[in-house]
Amino acid sequence: MCSLDESELKSAILNLLANARDAIPEGGEIIIQATNILVKHDSESINPEITPGEYVKLRVSGSGMNRKSIEKAFDPSFTTRETSVGIGLSLSMIYAFVKRYDGYIHIHSQEKLGTTIMIYFHRAEATQLTKN
């Protein structure tokens, strides 16, 4: 089990939301959801690296991404934004945060239909957020 730093978690969520917002400049719907989930050994996992166990799943849905964007989404030097727009490193920073806490991240997308970014953290027995 792991504990998460509250400020890092808030920053990751805000960065995910900023990415989703920037991806739909004409407007649209962004959904954020957190749920408890049990991943079984024999279940079809959306991330083949994920180990069986209890997780908290954070899901953010927004605009669709093309295959090239998905493949490079966590690369710090890759951006689909103009150089003068946004922070550009947010998905790579989110990836580093997720890995630092032994979590898993997966992008499911259909171009022009929608993208869902799912983050899985090992579920703690009780609230174990730490404040800085």
What features would you describe in this structure?
This is Histidine kinase domain-containing protein. Pfam families: HATPase_c. Residues 1-125 form the Histidine kinase domain. The protein has 132 residues and is an alpha+beta fold. It has a single domain (6-122), classed as Histidine kinase-like ATPase, C-terminal domain (Heat Shock Protein 90, 2-Layer Sandwich), CATH 3.30.565.10. The chain is 27% helix and 27% strand. It is built from three helices and four strands. It has helices at residues 6-23, 67-72, 90-100; strands at residues 31-39, 53-62, 104-110, 114-122. The chain has a four-stranded antiparallel β-sheet with strand order 1-2-4-3, with helices on one face. Strand 3 and strand 4 form a beta hairpin. The radius of gyration is 15 Å and the shape is globular. The two termini are 20 Å apart. Mean pLDDT is 76; it is low at 83-88.
The number of domains is 1
Q: Average the pLDDT over all residues and give the rounded result.
A: 76
The string of secondary-structure elements, in order, is HEEHHEE
As a percent range, the share of strand residues is 25-35%
Overall shape:
globular
Tell me the distance between the termini: 20 Å
The CATH topology is: Heat Shock Protein 90
Assembly type of the shown chains?
single chain
**CATH-defined architecture:** 2-Layer Sandwich
Q: What's the story with the biggest beta sheet?
A: 4 strands, antiparallel
Tell me the helix content.
Answer: 25-40%
| Strand runs, count | 4
* Rg over CA atoms: 15 Å
Q: Which structural class should the secondary elements be placed in? A: alpha+beta
How many separate helices? Answer: 3
Order of strands in the sheet with the most strands?
A: 1-2-4-3
- Can you tell me the CATH class? Alpha Beta
Pfam families: HATPase_c
Domain Histidine kinase: 1-125
Protein name: Histidine kinase domain-containing protein
